[in-house]
Amino acid sequence: MRAVLTLYGIKNCDTVKKARKFLEAAGIDYAFHDYKKDGVDTVVLKEFMDEFGSDVILNKRGTTWRKQLDEVKEAVVDKESAIALMVSEPSLIKRPLVQASAKRFVGFDAGGWEIALEMGELK
Question: What are the residues facing 30 on neighbouring strands?
């Protein structure tokens, strides 16, 4: 059976590890897209940004953002400039991004994912 759910992230990210363990424990077949190994799919990234907004997808809370030069941060003025920066620095993408058959998810929230699983949205 082919995986319907795709989890986008970085293999060594603790949050991604928790999300993967959750999916495996729930018996959910999924494909893992590792930004560091597989690159950033700009079409998928744009779709998530269209649904959730740039402020949600571009992780400005992490150390990768804080390490950016002020000029780089100030140059992020629209969706296109945010995508360009995230392509060059995949660690700036909120993790994980999940494309399920019925819904998209941003980040990992065990309680929220349990509810989505019960509602059939996480498959």
Answer: 5
Query: How high does pLDDT run on average in the chain?
Result: 94
Q: How far apart are CA 99 and CA 44, in angstroms?
A: 9
Per the annotation, the verdict on 13 as an active-site residue is yes
Active-site position among 13, 23, 82, 93 = 13
Q: What gap in Å lies between CA 52 and CA 10, rounded to an integer?
A: 20
For residue 110 the two structure tokens come to 């065990």
Per-residue pLDDT reduced to its tens digit, 100-111 = 987 999 999 999
